[in-house]
Amino acid sequence: MLAPGLEFPQLCAQCEDYPCVKACPANALTVSAETAAVHVNNEACIACGKCIEACPGRIPHMHPRDKHIVICDLCGGDPQCVKVCQEGSWNVLRTVPRREHSYKLYARKPEETSRDLAFKIYGQKGEDYL
Amino acid sequence: MICGYAGKFLEVDLSTGNIKETKYSDSILKEYVGGRGLAAKILWDRLGSRWEQTDPLGPENLLLMLTGPLTGYFPGGRTCVSGKSPQSNGVIGSTLAGEFGVELRCAGYDGIIFTGRAAKPVFLFIKDSDVELRNAERVWGKDGKQTVALLTKECRGLLKERYPRYGEWKEPAILYIGPAGENKARTAVVGSKWTHAAGYGGYGGVMGSKLLKAVVAKGTGPLPEAADMERVKKLIDTVCSEVYENELWRRWGTASAGYDVGAKFSSEPVRNWQEEWHDEKGFGVDKFENRVWAKQYWGDFGCPTTCLKLALVKEGKFSGAATDNPDYEMQAYLGPNLGIFTPEDNVFLVSLIDDLGLCGIQTGNVMGFVAELFQRRILTKEDLGGIEPRWGDVEAFAALAKTIACRKGIGDVLAEGTYRAALKLGKMKKKDLLPFAVQSKGVSIGAHGVRSGKDYPEIISYACSVQCGDHTSTAGLPLEGGELETIFDDSAVYCNFNVFGMPRNIRFDFYAAVTGLKLTRKTWFREKALRILQLQRAMLLLGGPDVKWNPKVHDDNPPRFYEPLPSGPYKGKATDKTAVEEYKAKYYKAVGWDKNGIPTSATLRKLRLRDVDRVLQKLR
Q1: How many CB pairs lie under 8 A apart between chains A and B?
Q2: What is residue B334's DSSP assignment?
Q3: CA dist., res. B54 & res. B47, Å (int)
Q4: Is position A30 within any domain?
Q5: Residues A65, B164: C-beta atoms closer than 8 Å
Q6: In contact, B364 and B338? CB cutoff 8 Å
Q7: Which of B148, B164, B244 sits opposite A88 (nearest CB)?
Q8: A5 and B298: CB-CB below 8 Å?
Q9: Pick from A2, A52, A122: which is nearest to B167 by CB?
Q10: What is the pLDDT of residue A104?
Q11: What is the dihedral of CA B452, B457, B463, B468, to 10 degrees?
């Protein structure tokens, strides 16, 4: 949320070309065959941050204490964030089956998503709030 | 160290720029919990001996931003802001929602104590243990929305620059003041996220008097460790599943009350409380929902209720105005109380009040007071600098609010709050204006009347509360249901909306699970809460330097509450003065105060408050 009212979850979208995995110099990132999520090998990770730069949405972030990268692992296929969102009947988060359309569309920088949302919600004035 | 506490507090001397860490002993934390309770203790220890001489808007006052052990654990975290209040001249524990308290605890601090006064505008930037005062001249004078935008950008930039390999930073939490706070208005708030405000107490003015524009916090650590995390998780589930059942607040927040409290209960301020009933269906919650809400669910971190609704004026001359619901208090005080009955006008005015950093309750009340004086021709257009506050004229009230925030012309008097404005204007007009001032001991009364007896049934709700007009902390018997319960919510620091209708011990169970300390109802209601109450009462009665309260006179309802209701289903009902006196006597006895409303020596000694007893001797 870069301005009040513009909250959104910024999560890994599992791009089909996995630029983060390709960028990792330590082979610490692998793709789960089962869920398509990116798995991090914490011991192998050298905390260089190259995956952050490679990600079109700058979504991975560094664990502040343990110094390894953190990427959503989809909770092994049963994402708990989706579960609580449904329990509370906000219905914002849902799991979607993998289809033909590109997932890359959803990996975006917070500034980009914020700007679009601001325009959608606040109209022209939205720009002033960022 | 007790579980559930970070274990240290930041102490920032704004005069010298020194920042250090302070600790409080386990025994103090056990007795006073945190938030409001701890604020009373800190203020008494540091200022008690010179309370009457301490100017709330002077550098000698303290500004406290405190959390409690349940902040971040109990769904719906808040932050408690306190100090010597420029409204009541006592201590008010004023809480506001948002992520600030959680960020602060994740950064490793239970609270911040500000002393002194900065030489030029500053803001405090906290990133875990990196704490610094930064120049705020660039944001000084900016309104709420601009302040949030500028500081979010600046501080995210700083974080990115200093920690380049972290990735994207979620925005830090910010507490700030608007122009009203900068100009030391007693009706100014400490705000957060555009729409949240710690209003009661007037701590925005205190923050402004210290030239402190904002506090920005980012914590990357975990919350302080809980004693029994499994139990905490179960309790969170219990609270959430109960809250999910509460369709009324989840769907509408308190916004259904803008119509209901007037139409059904006859306890909503209408035209400065001249009436408490209206049947304006155009002000119904369905109109808000359909016409101005741009987001159905909007909430803060961890809150299952998400009672905020993003409200936007979509067309017309106020197009673009944005705020939350508005919630009931804002609807009422910046709606019917000013003769305004359309959602768009209400949203515009609330949005403006947010931007100016004013309190909607205190400012709505003082503007209603002025409009009634104008209606009665006691004040004229000339007195008001050309503004004619006629009921329902939203632009006139907007102009008035701006003069208050800037302390321009008549605004300088009104920024003093209803009580002080009534005295000043009374002197000017040589007339007793207090009968038109709907306040209690310097604090404007929340938007719930007591005359009809259908909403707030206790006729001493405000008259005997140590937080005066605060509608969230009202006095009444039995003690177990009244102010003493709220003291727990405000001291453990979480949103009291998430305990409504819950099993009655849930707050104490939660406290035990987080801290590992057992707290029985008896210990809380007979001992700990009473101790906090007596401290607040003592400082309220000491007062000074500009006002002093006499319980015989000031432990009372505003005169208006003794006038019969002129309209609605409870027409003719008024509060009975004799009944109030009888109730007061009973209440005084129950909380251990003498017949003059002063805590007795025996009460204070039993609660181990001998030093308070010694100081209060001069009032007896």
Answers
A1: 73
A2: T
A3: 8
A4: yes
A5: no
A6: yes
A7: B244
A8: yes
A9: A52
A10: 82
A11: -110
**What pLDDT, in 10s, does the model give residues B507-517?**
999 999 999 99
Residue in A closest to B293 by C-alpha: A121
Which chain B residues are closer than 8 Å to A108 by Cβ?
none
Closest Cα of chain A to B247: distance in Å? 11
Task: Note whether B133 and B177 are within 8 A (CB).
Answer: no
Amino acid letter, B94: S
* Identity of the amino acid at A112: E
What average pLDDT does the segment B93-107 reach?
98
Within-domain flag for A9: no
Residue A98 contacts B where some CB pair is shorter than 8 Å:
no
Question: Inter-chain contact B320–A61, Cβ cutoff 8 Å?
Answer: no
pLDDT in tens, B218-276: 999 999 999 999 999 999 999 999 999 999 999 999 999 999 999 999 999 999 999 99
SS3 B63: strand
Separation CA B154–CA B100 (nearest Å): 17
Domain ranges for chain B: 246-444, 579-620
Q: Are B151 and B123 in contact (CB under 8 A)?
A: yes
pLDDT for residue A1: 80
Please report the DSSP string for B234-248 in residue order.
Answer: HHHHHHHHHHHT-HH
Q: How far is B578 from chain A (nearest CA, A)?
A: 49
Q: Do A90 and B295 touch (CB under 8 A)?
A: no
Partner-chain contact B322 A123, CB within 8 Å: no
Confidence check: pLDDT of B135 > 80: yes
Measure in Å the smallest separation between the Cα of B321 and chain A Cα atoms.
9
Find where tokens 């259904």 sit: B256
Amino acid at position B121, single letter: P
Yes or no, beta carbons of A10 and B166 under 8 Å apart = no
- What's A31's domain CATH number? 3.30.70.20
Across the interface, whether the CB atoms of B165 and A60 are under 8 A apart is answered no
Class of domain B246-444: mainly alpha
- Tell me the C-alpha distance between B391 and B331, whole Å: 15
Helix (H) or strand (E) holding B134: strand B130-135
Q: Do A61 and B306 touch (CB under 8 A)?
A: no
Of residues B281, B340, B131, B111, the one with CA closest to residue B216: B131
Report pLDDT digits (tens) over B329-376: 999 999 999 999 999 999 999 999 999 999 999 999 999 999 999 999
Cβ atoms within 10 Å of A109's Cβ, excluding its own = 15
CB contact under 8 A, A58 and B167: yes
Q: Averaged over A8-37, what is the pLDDT?
A: 95
| CA-based nearest residue in chain B for residue A7 | B298
Structural domain tally of chain A? 1
Phi-psi region of B544 (alpha: psi -120 to 50; beta: other; left: phi over 0): left
Q: What is the pLDDT of residues A31-88, one digit of tens each?
A: 999 999 999 999 999 999 999 999 999 999 999 999 999 999 999 999 999 999 999 9
d(CA A80, CA B446) in angstroms, rounded, equals: 40
Establish if A2 belongs to a structural domain: no
- Mean pLDDT, to the nearest integer, of B423-440? 98
CA dist B198 → B90, B192, B201 (Å): 16, 9, 8
A6: in domain: no
CB-CB under 8 Å, B294 with A130: no
Q: Report DSSP letters for B566-608, one per residue.
A: -SSTTTT----HHHHHHHHHHHHHHHTB-TTSPBPHHHHHHTT
Residues of A in contact with B306 (CB under 8 A): 88, 90
Maximum alpha-carbon separation in chain A: 48
Q: Collect all residues of chain B within an 8 Å Cβ-Cβ radius of residue A88.
A: 240, 244, 304, 306
Asked if the C-beta of A2 comes within 8 angstroms of chain B's C-beta atoms, the answer is yes
Q: Which domain, by its residues, includes A93?
A: 19-129
Tell me the per-residue pLDDT of B444-465, one tens digit each, with 9 for 90 and over: 999 999 999 999 889 999 999 9
Q: What was the pLDDT predicted at B360?
A: 98
